[in-house]
Amino acid sequence: MKQERAMVTRGRLTRAAAGEFARQGYAGTSLQVVCKEAEVSMGALTFHFRAKSELAEAVAEAAVAETGAVVAEAKGCGGDPLAAMSGLACDLADLLARSPAVRAMVRLEEERIIAAGGWQAAWEPAVRAMLECARQRDDLTAEIEVETVVQLAAHLLNGTAVTLHARPDADEVAALAHIWAAVMRGIRASVAAH
């Protein structure tokens, strides 16, 4: 019972901190506000997290887990790997839009509070694998390098995060879907090329 209650409290603190880190950044996040949002005492916070940096790491771990769940649902190489990759990019944009933990992780990486690249490392291997599969099937235009499209995905998703920080109500998922539709026309090998 105590262990279950401790897990619930830790989860509430992590969720509250994620929202604050996403909105205010690391320096602007007050532990008192986190406690108030989580409806726990400062003593409970310090029991679970000895330092603000530990709380930031817990938020990052939650973000990586959420991202991993989205990646695990991706279609992979079955069917159309380029469509699967584009779909995953849009799903990741949707995750950015709805997950304070993911937005917080991206911001904490930008602020160099946590090691950079952790969020990207959670999804990049799947994107690369889909693109390699497309390359093997000759679905990818010969002039396009896999690494170029991986970098494009990173830039587009980072841009999505920046836009969502500035305008939280922006429909970045729809915007990204339109961008990927244009990108697909440029990177997909024509049927005649097969």
From TrEMBL:
Q: Report keywords, A-Z.
A: DNA-binding, Transcription, Transcription regulation
Domain HTH tetR-type, which positions? 7-67
Which SUPFAM superfamilies does this entry report, sorted A to Z? Homeodomain-like (SSF46689), Tetracyclin repressor-like, C-terminal domain (SSF48498)
Question: Domain of life here?
Answer: Bacteria
Q: Which InterPro entries match?
A: DNA-bd_HTH_TetR-type_CS, Homeodomain-like_sf, HTH-type_TetR-like_transc_reg, HTH_TetR, Tet_transcr_reg_TetR-rel_C_sf
DNA-binding region in chain numbering: 30-49
The UniProt record lists the keyword DNA-binding: yes
Does this entry carry the keyword Repressor? no
Q: Which Pfam families match?
A: TetR_N (PF00440)
Q: What is this protein called?
A: TetR family transcriptional regulator
Native species: Streptomyces ochraceiscleroticus
Organism classification:
Bacteria, Bacillati, Actinomycetota, Actinomycetes, Kitasatosporales
